Amino acid sequence: MDLSDPDTYIHGLPHHEFRRLRAEDPVSWQSEPGGRGFWAITRHADVMTVLRDPRRYSSWRGGALLADPPAEFLEKLREGMLNRDPPDHTMLRRLVNKAFNPRRVAELEVRVARRAAELVTAVRDRGACDFAVDVAGEMPLFVICEILGVPLEDRARLFALTERMLGTNVTDRAASLRDGMAAADEMRTYGAHLGAHKRAHPADDLVSDLLAAEFDGRRLTDGEFQAFFMLLFNAGSDTTRSLLCFGLDLLIDRPDAYRRLQAEPSLIPNAVEEMLRFDPPVIQFRRTATEAAELGGRTIAEGDKVVVFFPSANRDEQVFADPDRFDIDRPPGDHLAFGYGTHYCVGAPLARMEAKYVLRELVSSVGQVERTSALVASRSNFIRGARHLQIRYRRA
Predict the structure, then answer these.
(1) What are phi and psi of 189, to 5 degrees?
(2) Are 248 and 257 in contact (CB under 8 A)?
C-alpha cells in the first residue's frame, strides 16, 4: 500500500494497514513514487517522541508537507508557523496567542452559538440537505471569515483555493504540487491586500489585533502575516468541516448514539473528542531528521523524511482500549488529532466550540438522520476533506 498516494484515503482510512504496521514495523521505510521515500511513524508513543523533539525532527528543514517542495516555495512556507522550529516558532505563537485574547474568544463563542442555530434552523424544515455544504461547510467558513474580516463575496473564491491546496483531482503528482503552489500564491496575495488594508485602517477584529501584536519589540512581517492568514483560513474552513461531516457520518451508522446525544446533550463535548480520536481530520505531518537517530528500533539518517500518522496513533492498542470501537462514553484520552507539543493546533478550542454548537442544534432540531448517498471525500493524503454528505431527516 502506498501511504503517500491520495487515492489510498479517498474511500476511508487504511486502518488494516496501520494495524499491521503498528504490530510488525511501527517505524517503517516507505517508498514514494516520484520522491525519495520516508519513514512512516504509526505508534502513539513514537509519534509523540517525534513531535516533542523539534531539535531532532525539524519542521523548518524540509517543511511540514510530505512532498519535497521546490526551494523557492519552501522559503515561503518557512514564513509560517507550521514550518518553523523554536525559538522562531515560539515567538510567532506568542504573537498569535496575544491576538486570541480571552475577550476575543468570549465574543466568538456568542457568534458561533448564534450562527449554528441559524444554519440548522435554515435546513430543519426541508427534510433533506447536503450537510457538508449547507451546515458543516458554512459554519467554519462564516467564523473564520468573520474574524479575518473577509467580505462575503470573496468567501467562495478563497474556499476554492483551499480545496486546491488540501485536496486535488490532478493525478499527476508534480502537476498537483504545482497547482497547490499556485493556489497558495493566490491566497497569500489576497492576504497581502487584506493586511495592507488593516494596517492602514485598523478595526476591532482579529486581523488588526494580530498585526498590532508585539512581543519583545517584534511584530509579524508581511510574509509572516500572509502565511498565517493562509494557515488560519485553510485550517479554519476545512478541518472543522471534516470533523462535523465524518462525525455525523459515524452517528448515522450508530443511531443509538445519536439518540443518546438527543437525550443527554451534555455528552456532546465528549462525543466530539471521540470523533476526533476515531476519525481525525489530519492524516499526517512530515518532519526532517537533523541528525542520526534511533526510533522504534530503526536507524534514521540525517535528512530523512519522518512522517507521523495521526489516525494510526489514535487507534494504538497500547493506549486505547478496544480502539476500533466508536464510544461516546469513552473518557477523553490522549488522542493526537490536534497534534502534540510545540505545534499543537492553535485553533483547537475554536474547532471544538463550533462542533459542539452545531451538533447541539442538530440533535435538538431534527430526528434520526439518514444518508441518501455516501459521503464524498476529497482526494488528499494530508487532510480528510468532506465535500458532500447528503442526508434526510424529520423535524424533531
Answers:
(1) -60, -40
(2) no
Is residue 284 within 8 A of residue 21, CB to CB? The reply is no
Q: How confident is the model at residue 235 (pLDDT cuts 50, 70, 90)?
A: confident
* Average pLDDT estimate for 375-387: 92
Confidence at residue 349, expressed as pLDDT on a 0 to 100 scale: 87
Question: C-alpha angle 183/187/190, rounded to 5°?
Answer: 140
**What are the φ/ψ torsions at residue 286 (nearest 5 degrees)?**
-110, 145
Pairing of β 305-309 and β 38-41: parallel
Question: What confidence score (pLDDT) does residue 6 get?
Answer: 92
For residues 246 and 12, the answer to whether their CB atoms sit within 8 Å is no
Total residues found in the chain within this entry: 396
Which residue's entry shows cell 480571552? 102
The rounded distance, in Å, linking the Cα atoms of 300 and 50 is 12
User: What are the helix (H) ranges across 201-309?
Assistant: 206-212, 222-234, 240-252, 255-263, 268-278
* Mean pLDDT, all residues of the chain: 91
The tally of CA atoms less than 13 A away on the side-chain side of residue 88 is 16
Q: Grid coordinates in use for 321? A: 482500549
CA 165 – CA 383 distance, rounded (Å) = 10
Angle 138-340-292 from CA coordinates, rounded to 5°: 130
Q: How far apart are the C-alpha atoms of 227 and 195, rounded to whole Å?
A: 11
Domains, the chain, ranges and CATH? 6-381 (1.10.630.10)
Mean pLDDT of 360-379: 95
pLDDT in tens, 182-234: 888 999 999 999 999 988 998 877 788 888 888 778 888 888 888 888 888 88
Distances (CA, A) of 74 to 25, 80, 322: 31, 10, 41
pTM value is 0.92
Q: What is the pLDDT of residues 116-173, one digit of tens each?
A: 999 999 999 999 999 999 999 999 888 888 778 888 788 888 888 888 887 777 777 7
- Please say whether the beta carbons of 388 and 130 come within 8 A: yes
Provide the pLDDT for residue 232.
82
CA dist 349 to 109, 272, 346, 353, 354, Å? 10, 12, 8, 6, 9
Q: Give bridge partners of residue 298 from the DSSP assignment.
A: 295
Q: Can you tell me the distance from the alpha carbon of 203 to that of 333, in angstroms, rounded to the nearest whole number?
A: 40
Q: How far is CA 323 from CA 22, 132, 278, 314, in A?
A: 13, 27, 8, 8
